[in-house]
Fold this protein.
Amino acid sequence: MDKTLKHYARKTKSQSTRENVLSSLDLFFRHIGCDNPDAYIKNPKCVVQKQLREYLDETKNKDRYIAYVNMHHAFLTQLFELIGFKNGRSLEVELFFEPARYRRKEEYVPTKEDVLAMINSASSLKAKTLDLVLTALDKLAPEQCKAVIEQINFKVP
């Protein structure tokens, strides 16, 4: 476990990622009923592969998003690679296919209520004005936006 946490500390420096990794490992080891992960790594590759596939299949069958299941796959295969399942012992467990339409996120367009909430939460009059101007500019044509920005003396990149 320590190798995995150190690996993610070097790669991401994100505490949230490390917490997600630990959660994923905890769920996997609880699923297979293992109390000692250090002893578990002595199992043969075929046993580990089979249990990992079963865990991922069961997770997917619980109506979890495919991206969530693939994230668990990534964390667990990374763990097993770090603790010695590499080269001839590397695990061969496929990812679940996720169509592109599920990976795309639609553009967020704030509603009038969202804009008013942003303006009310702004700390200064200058910030409130900027929120209003930027929201209004979003409704204008690009040429009109540029003209308004130049009149306000903003620097246009």
User: Anything to note?
Assistant: The CA atoms of residues 58 and 64 lie 10 Å apart. DSSP finds nine helices and no strands in the chain.
